[in-house]
Amino acid sequence: MLCFPHCCLFLKVWNPVSTVWPDFTNPKTAQYWADMVKMLHDQIPFDGLWIDMNEPANFYNGLKDGCPNSTLETPQYIPHIENGLMCAKTLCMTAKQYIGNHYDAHNLFGMSEGIATNFALTQVLGKRPFIISRSTFAGHGRFASHWTGDVFSTWYDMRMSIPRK
Q: Per the CATH hierarchy, to which homologous superfamily does domain 8-160 belong?
């Protein structure tokens, strides 16, 4: 679904009606995001931002009534994911974003938000911003730092964070 001139993605998460995710692949969204960040900063001065839910999460698998029948929704190869659905807890792969289908942009969502947040905070603070992001992609470190999410401080979790051959 579209809203405003800078495309928003409507999903169901915690609130009773719907949640709106800005389409950060749309160039107009960067200025919208900068305006929202400035509005928040004017009310509550802050030095940086922690963007946690920066991938389009969803309590539905796709839309409330499912996704359209398409080879993007059921490609020949499906990774090991919940119920074998590409749209598991996210958008339909055929959802339209500014740069194309969600199928082609899913893994870039966090990075595109990191870039827009960097742009916004640089405008608001007038200096290099401090941003921590959960969802990242190669090259993301130029725009924001990365955190690994809800990892427990146990020896097991520390061991699991070490890559092995």
A: Glycosidases (3.20.20.80)
Nearest-angstrom CA–CA distance, 54 and 68:
25
Domain positions in the chain are: 8-160
Q: Where do the H-state alpha helices sit in 3-55? A: 27-43
**CA–CA distance from 93 to each of 10, 61, 126 (Å)?**
14, 10, 38
Judge residue 47's burial from the number of C-beta atoms within 10 Å of its C-beta, 0-12 exposed, 13-18 middle, 19 or more buried: exposed
pLDDT tens-digit profile of 6-21?
Answer: 455 666 777 777 777 8
- Rounded to the nearest integer, the mean pLDDT of the chain is 85
Catalytic residue (one of 35, 47, 52, 104): 52
The catalytic residue among 23, 55, 73, 113 is: 55
Token pair of 22, please? Answer: 């800005």
* 55 labelled catalytic: yes
Give catalytic status of residue 42 as yes or no: no
pTM of the entire predicted model? 0.81
